[in-house]
């Protein structure tokens, strides 16, 4: 539904993330999995390019498919419980970022997150339900670079650097769903900032000057590292004019924050999350009349 799922129900793999209150709307036992994220990589560093041209360079990059969500649900009286596994973030790059007769730079970068947790939902009345998701998150960042600078035909300076971060946090999602009438539904979802549990990082730096051997090596292990999971607040509406046709709309706000990702100053990067408001629309149409249970 284009991300407009706060007031929707019917998919256990989406309920935990968008609105856990919708889980109790499912009947019986259910398991759902989705592979819906197709990422096209066309990244350039320190170079000006026309953004419109990126979509035309399909053959110059590659696509990656991500299993974005898995979920199931078990019913008990007015309660519904489920397990949710999602991949909310995945970023990857590997290639040259600078290439000239005197300078070559290569970057290898992977940043991925995995959230797994439990979802609970309670049907307070025929029209209202509440829910909560509790995720334990794991993030892994690995970034390595190789820089080669040619000073003269007999002198080169080679710099190798590697940075890694692992981080765990707890994320809570609260949800509310109200069927206003047969055609309209309202959903509210609130996700406060993630609660950090443990973060560790390491850094390795080696500089080799062919005219001044041996190499200079700096290595730091188990330094404190941080990851900030920004808050997410969503308000959604669903309109069903007929049994076959559904429209959904969401307004989502993400909070901003800036922080250094490592205590080690020489390896730290300043990460900035900007406050952002998104608006999403979705539509679903059944070509065949849905069968009522």
Describe, in plain words, how this protein is organized in 3D:
- With 293 residues, this protein is an all-beta fold.
- It has a domain at 12-44 and 59-229.
- 2% of the residues lie in helices and 63% in strands.
- It contains 1 helix and 14 strands.
- Strands 1, 2, 3, 4, 5, 6, 7, 8, 9, 10, 11 and 14 form a 12-stranded antiparallel sheet that branches. The chain has a two-stranded antiparallel ribbon with strand order 12-13.
- β6 (155-179) and β7 (184-191) form a beta hairpin.
- It is elongated and about 80 Å long.
- It starts with 11 loop residues before the first helix and ends in an 8-residue tail after the last strand.
Instruction: Summarize the helix and strand pattern as letters.
Output: HEEEEEEEEEEEEEE
Tell me how many strands there are: 14
Which structural class best describes the helix and strand composition? mainly beta
Q: Write down the overall geometry.
A: elongated
- Strand percentage lies at over 45%
Total number of helices: 1
Summarize model confidence as the mean pLDDT. Answer: 84
- Describe the largest sheet: 12 strands, antiparallel
Instruction: Calculate the terminal CA-CA distance, rounded to whole Å.
Output: 23 Å
Radius of gyration: 24 Å
Instruction: Note poorly predicted spans.
Output: 58-63
Helix content percent band: under 10%
């Amino acid at each position: 539904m284009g991300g407009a799922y706060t007031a929707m129900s019917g998919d256990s793999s989406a309920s935990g993330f968008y609105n856990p209150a919708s889980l109790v709307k499912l009947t019986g036992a259910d398991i759902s999995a989705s592979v819906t994220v197709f990422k096209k990589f066309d990244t350039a560093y320190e170079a000006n390019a026309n953004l419109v041209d990126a979509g035309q360079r399909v053959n110059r990059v590659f696509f990656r498919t991500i299993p974005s969500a898995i979920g199931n649900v078990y019913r008990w009286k007015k309660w519904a419980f489920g397990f949710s596994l999602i991949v909310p973030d995945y970023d990857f790059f590997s290639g040259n970022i600078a290439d000239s007769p005197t300078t070559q730079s290569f970057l290898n970068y992977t940043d991925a997150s995995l959230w797994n947790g439990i979802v609970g939902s309670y049907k307070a009345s025929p029209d209202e339900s509440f829910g909560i998701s509790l995720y334990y998150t794991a993030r892994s960042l690995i970034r390595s670079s190789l820089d080669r600078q040619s000073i003269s035909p007999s002198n080169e300076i080679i710099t190798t650097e590697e940075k890694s971060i692992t981080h765990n946090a707890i994320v809570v999602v609260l949800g509310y769903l109200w069927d206003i009438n047969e055609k309209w539904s309202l959903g509210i979802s609130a996700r406060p900032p993630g609660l950090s549990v443990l973060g560790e990082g390491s850094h390795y730096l080696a500089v080799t000057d062919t005219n001044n051997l041996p190499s200079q090596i700096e290595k730091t292990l188990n330094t404190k590292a941080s990851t900030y999971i920004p808050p997410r607040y969503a308000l959604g509406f669903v309109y069903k004019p007929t049994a076959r046709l559904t429209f959904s709309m969401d307004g989502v706000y993400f909070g901003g924050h800036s922080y250094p990702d490592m205590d080690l100053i020489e390896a730290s990067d300043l990460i900035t999350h900007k406050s952002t408001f998104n608006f999403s629309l979705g539509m679903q149409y059944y070509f065949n009349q849905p069968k009522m249970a």
